[in-house]
Structures are given as structure tokens and as C-alpha cells.
């Protein structure tokens, strides 16, 4: 609950003080209890980690970098802490969903494949070994099929009609928030110098594609729930009180708003990492660090003028995430 990602106001719930909200626990508690009683690991599924944003103003490239590494370490560490109180521990299955909407977000399938492969390598190197990867490429019934066929199959089996989606966006505050955030991302990702369309044309196009992405995301979520019936469904998006999905942050700090590791770069300031757009990190003069021959993250120097600071007071120790 400490790392829960609630919708604005959701923390108020119906509960006094810091006590966990009964209504928020209810959809998940029995699933967790069953696993604990059976002496088995608690399983979480988390759709996300699709691919890097195609916008070079936001990210460093196609492959997961330090931004993803930090999120993976945080989630792996969360499972380690669950293991301290429930020895069989917990597992998180990352349900990488880039394949299911690659054509809607202008990311070639080859980039999705490369991202997933590198993410898989990063997972296996984690100390707790609690994370694994699941993607549309793992669907037994779709093995060896072209990627377009997989997306068509998903639409056929789990898709909703355009009317149903529009009704969802109108009726459900959480879906509406997602729609607005996606529209913004999709608009920004095409707002590159080589684009010749007007802003309003790009905006219209972003709204159309946002519906498409929401449709595929929902279809993917339904498939994931059917595939992992005994898992607690996590979400990277903020959730309302009592939601069947449990919103989870991807860092202990949890101050990154709508930024995700795949829409951003990691920036280290005084030993503390945060997410930022690549363009913002560069604008503040942060230094790019390479790992294994690839761009990894930025290191920013302090923004307070050093002469004045050293004269007035000693450097305060950096607040570290707990
Ligand atoms: Zn609640």
C-alpha cells in the first residue's frame, strides 16, 4: 500500500488516518490470502514496459536503459521485502505490451523485439530473480505468426467496438485520464521538426490513435487476466478507490507523475535518480553517461551557484530514497 499509485483524491478513500482502505484492499485480499495459505509465491501481473517512446526528445534510444533498470530493481526489491514476511515470496510478471499496439505508436516491430530481448536480459541479472516477462510473442496459439496477425487475433478475441470504447471514456474517470494522457503522448511523439501537418491535424490524429491504444491495452489486459487467473492485477496508472487493478509506482520516490521509464531518461542528482525528458536533462547541462557502449543515463550537476553556496552553508546530505 505504501507504493500504491492512487488517483488524485483516492488516498482520502473512506479511511481515517494511514490505515489501509478496506474498499481498496477488497478486490485483491482474497487472491493474496489464497496464495499465502497455499504457501506459494504471491503472483502479480503488470502490463507495461512496451518499448521506448519513438520521440528522441524524451529518450536515449530504442533499448531499455538505466531508467528501466531502476524500475526493475525497485520491483525486484519489493518482492524481496514481501519474502521477508512470506518466505515463498512474490513474483511479478511484466506483461510487455508494445507488440499489441506498435503500429499505433509509430514503433517498428523490430524495435519492440530488441526492447523485449534486452529487458529479458536485464531481468535475469536482478539479485532477487522475482521478475519475468510475458508478451504477445509468448502466446502459444500465435507462435510463429506474423505480428500483424497477432494484433488482429487480439482484436477478434478480446477487442471492444469503437462505440463501447467511446462510452468507456465518457463514463469512467480512470479511462478518461488515460485517454487524455495518451492523446498528449501521441501528439508530442509526432511533434518533430520533419512533420508538416498542422498542430490541430496532429491533435485529431492523436485522439484517434489514443482510442486505438486504449482498445488494444484493454484487450491485452483482458488476455493477461485470463492467462494469469491467480495473479493480482497491477497497473502503472493511478487507480480509484476500490479498483480491480492495483496502481503501483515504479520507484520509491514516486514523484514522476505520468512519466514512465520508457518515456524518459534517468537523471542522477546528488546520488538520487529521477526521471526526466531527455531534452530537459540536456537543457540543464546534465552529462551523458555510457554503459556497455550505449547511452545509459544523465548525471546533473547542482543547479545552485556553487560559489555562493560554499560561502553560506555546507552541502546538505542528499535525501536518499528508502
Ligand atoms: Zn480506498
Automatic annotation (TrEMBL):
Taxonomic superkingdom: Bacteria
Entry-linked InterPro entries: Isocyanide_synthase_DIT1, PvcA
Pfam families, per the entry: DIT1_PvcA
Gene3D superfamilies, alphabetized: 3.30.60.140
Stated name of the protein: L-tyrosine/L-tryptophan isonitrile synthase family protein
Amino acid at each position: 500500500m505504501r507504493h500504491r499509485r492512487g488517483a488524485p483524491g483516492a488516498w482520502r478513500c473512506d479511511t481515517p488516518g494511514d490505515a489501509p482502505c478496506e474498499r481498496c484492499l477488497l478486490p485483491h485480499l482474497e487472491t493474496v490470502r489464497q496464495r499465502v495459505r497455499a504457501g506459494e509465491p504471491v503472483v502479480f501481473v503488470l502490463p507495461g514496459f512496451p518499448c521506448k517512446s519513438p520521440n528522441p526528445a524524451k529518450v536515449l534510444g530504442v533499448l531499455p536503459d538505466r531508467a528501466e533498470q531502476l524500475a526493475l530493481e525497485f520491483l525486484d526489491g519489493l518482492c524481496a521485502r514481501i519474502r521477508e514476511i512470506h518466505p515463498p515470496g512474490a513474483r511479478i510478471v511484466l506483461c510487455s505490451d508494445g507488440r499489441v499496439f506498435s503500429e499505433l505508436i509509430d514503433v517498428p516491430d523490430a524495435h519492440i523485439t530488441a526492447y523485449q530481448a534486452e529487458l529479458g536480459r536485464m531481468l535475469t541479472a536482478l539479485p532477487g530473480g522475482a521478475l519475468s516477462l510475458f508478451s504477445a510473442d509468448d502466446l502459444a496459439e500465435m507462435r510463429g505468426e506474423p505480428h500483424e496477425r497477432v494484433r488482429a487475433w487480439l482484436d477478434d478475441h478480446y477487442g471492444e467496438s469503437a462505440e463501447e470504447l467511446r462510452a468507456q471514456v465518457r463514463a469512467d474517470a480512470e479511462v478518461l485520464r488515460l485517454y487524455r494522457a495518451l492523446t498528449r503522448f501521441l501528439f508530442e511523439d509526432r511533434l518533430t521538426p520533419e512533420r508538416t501537418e498542422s498542430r490541430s491535424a496532429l491533435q485529431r490524429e492523436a485522439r484517434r490513435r489514443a482510442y486505438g491504444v486504449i482498445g488494444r491495452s484493454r484487450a491485452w489486459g483482458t488476455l493477461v487476466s485470463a492467462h494469469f487467473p491467480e495473479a493480482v492485477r497491477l497497473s502503472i496508472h493511478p487507480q480509484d478507490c476500490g479498483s480491480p487493478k492495483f496502481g503501483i509506482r515504479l520507484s520509491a520516490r514516486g514523484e514522476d507523475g505520468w512519466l514512465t521509464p520508457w518515456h524518459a531518461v534517468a537523471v542522477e542528482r546528488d546520488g538520487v535518480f529521477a526521471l526526466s525528458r531527455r531534452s530537459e536533462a540536456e537543457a540543464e547541462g546534465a552529462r551523458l553517461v555510457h554503459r556497455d557502449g550505449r547511452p545509459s543515463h544523465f548525471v546533473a550537476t547542482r543547479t545552485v551557484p556553487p560559489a555562493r553556496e560554499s560561502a553560506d552553508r555546507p552541502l546538505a546530505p542528499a535525501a536518499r530514497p528508502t
